[in-house]
Each structure stands twice: as structure tokens, then as C-alpha cells.
Amino acid sequence: MAFRIQLLDTAQCFEAAPGESVLDAALRHELRLPHECCFGSCATCRIKLVEGSVRYDDFPPGLTPEEAAEGYALACQARPASDLVISSARRLPPCSEPARHLATVTALRPLGDDVLHLSLEVPPEAELLYRPGQYINILLPDGGHRSFSMASRPHPQALDFHIRRIPEGRFTSGHAARLKPGDRLPVELPHGSFCFHAEDYRPLLMVATGTGLAPIKSILESLMDDEDCPPVSLYWGMRTEADLYLHDEIQGWADRLCDFRYVPVLSRADAGWTGRRGHVQQAVAEDFEDLSEHAIYLCGAPAMIGDAKRVFLTRNASVDHLYCDSFTFQSTATA
Ligand SMILES: Cc1cc2nc3c(=O)[nH]c(=O)nc-3n(C[C@H](O)[C@H](O)[C@H](O)COP(=O)(O)OP(=O)(O)OC[C@H]3O[C@@H](n4cnc5c(N)ncnc54)[C@H](O)[C@@H]3O)c2cc1C
Ligand code: FES
User: Fold this and answer.
1) N or C: at which end does the chain have fewer Cβ atoms within 10 angstroms?
2) What is the pLDDT averaged over residues 309-328?
3) Domains in the chain, start-ordered, CATH in brackets?
């Protein structure tokens, strides 16, 4: 049976064919709902069900049962079970539409054993405008792409990235390993709805694993020396001390951010490590009895994000103040 869907924010209406997802139906009617992975992991397509109900073939990993109970759904996986009124009101309007450019590699240097610092420059006429936290798609010859978050405060031409080498990864172990200054890369940007929500004026709790630090660094750099910067706690999860590729630099951020607290957490620390051990989300849960007053930003491995959401909601975190940037794998998405 076909169902009617109304977008509360714009009053637009469209129809979903039997068994069609909310996102597919919207796109078929040329309505652009935000989306990225399209397989239920990144939660970019999260909507609020104002009226009606949906069903899933498989409950998506990017949604917690608690979020579903509060009326949230993932449009790419949700199939209407009745007529719907939906809202995606929390999203900020894009500051510019994605555009393609030919970028030039300006620098490459290792950041620790398996992270590469890649610097790119786009032509001046590109006049890049993007929000800290957004990402680029590096376009591959076969028509695929790989996504990487901008790792420094926005700049009209210069872009920085922290690229973790994935064993046998096509781009990170193949193409990226052969790049040299002067090489050209086709790219498309800006993408992504993950960014700083200045309207959410609460103490910031930033939680990252691995190169999930990159979009957080971009956000925090844009808040440096800003008298409106809220208090910031940064928890960074890595395996070993050697993996903490920006440890010294981060410690220096305390001079330029408000009430900055930095907690590295290692899951496979050796005996000499005197800091926190375990999983980063558990360290946060140990330190905060109540998260109801925080704006929480989660970046990195999808498994950490899923688990952190579940744990933090038991500490009274508000679903409306949780912002996630899930580093899903594009090869999976393509498959
Ligand atoms: C919005 C967004 C932003 C991102 N930002 C960054 C960033 O700033 N820095 C960064 O390092 N990565 C980032 N990623 C992740 C990165 O895009 C993927 O790791 C990418 O797929 C790697 O490409 P590849 O061609 O080297 O590996 P692929 O050839 O795509 O993958 C080879 C195999 O390795 C596995 N794999 C791929 N990626 C990962 C991973 N991250 N962890 C574990 N296993 C993996 C998969 O099973 C895959 O089949 C981001 C992803 C998204 C969606
Ligand atoms: S687009 Fe729906 S979860 Fe990623």
C-alpha cells in the first residue's frame, strides 16, 4: 500500500510506493533529504516522526532503540507503515553546495605509524566556503569516492587531512601512498551535516576515536580565541601511546580554548602508560554521572558511536544534543 508523507518544515508532500524507504521516495520526488551512507550507519538521514509509524527490514545500526522510542527514524531504512508527518528541522542549511575541483597536493608527511597528513590546495576561483566538521570526497577513476574530513579551520583554498592507512585499502594504502607534491586529485566538497552547532550553547563534550579527531580539530580551531567558546572536554580514544599522533599539540590548545580538558584513553596501553585505559566511551561514563546539560559530538568508528550513544543515553544525554560523524567505509557503501 502506498503512503503519503508530509515534510513538516516545508509543508511539501510526496508518496512512498509500497515497500519504498522514506529517503528513496523523497529523492524520487526530487526532494533532497540529507543522506550519506544509505545503509543505516551514519544517521545523517535521521528524521523525527511527528505523526505515523515506520518499519525496518533490519533495525539499522545507526539508530538506538532509545532514539526510536523517542520518535526518531533513519529515512534511508525506514519504510512507512502509515501516512507520515516528518521533520528534519535540526539540520543547519548548507553554507554552499558541493562542487568539483582539481586539487593539487601541497604536502605529505607521516603523523605516527599509520596516519598520513595530506595537504591540498584548490584554485583561488573555487572560493571554498564550508563549515568546520564537513568533509571532502576524493574521486576515484572508477567513479567511486573516498571521504575524508577537513582537519583544520576553514580556508578558501588550503585543506588538511588526517588519513589513516587501512591495510589493503584501495585509496589509503594504494593511491595515497604513492602521492607526491604537485600531483592532482579530483575532489568534491563540501559534504556532510556534521558541524558545530553554535545555537546549542552548552558545555562541549567531544569524543573521538582515531582520525575521528580531524573534524573535531577543525571545529575546535575555529573556536580558538573566541570569547563565546563554551567549556570543552575532549576525550580521544586510541590503542597505544604511539598512536596519539597529535598529543603534544592538543595539550597546547588549553591556552586558546575555554576551560579545556583533554583526556587521552588507550585501549591497548603498555605497562608504562599512567593515563586512562579502556574504551573512550566508558571513560566518559566514568567521569560524568549526568550528561543532560552537554552538547555531545561523537566522531570516528561506527562501533564506538553506536555504543557511546547507548551508554550516554543512560547518563541522561539528550538525543537532540548528540551530533555524530560516523566514519563508515565507502567500499561497503558501494557494495
Ligand atoms: C564522512 C566520513 C568522513 C571520514 N573522514 C575520515 C578522515 O578524516 N580520516 C580517515 O582516516 N578516514 C575517514 N573516513 C573513513 C574513510 O573514508 C574510509 O576508511 C575509507 O573507506 C578508506 O578507503 P580505502 O580505499 O583506503 O579502503 P577501502 O578499499 O574502502 O577498504 C578496504 C577494506 O578495509 C575496511 N575498512 C575501510 N575503512 C576502514 C576503517 N576506517 N576502519 C576499519 N576498516 C576499514 C573495509 O572492510 C574495506 O572493505 C571518513 C568516512 C566518512 C564516511
Ligand atoms: S544515510 Fe541513512 S544512515 Fe546513513
Assistant:
1) C
2) 92
3) 3-87 (3.10.20.30), 99-191 (2.40.30.10), 204-328 (3.40.50.80)
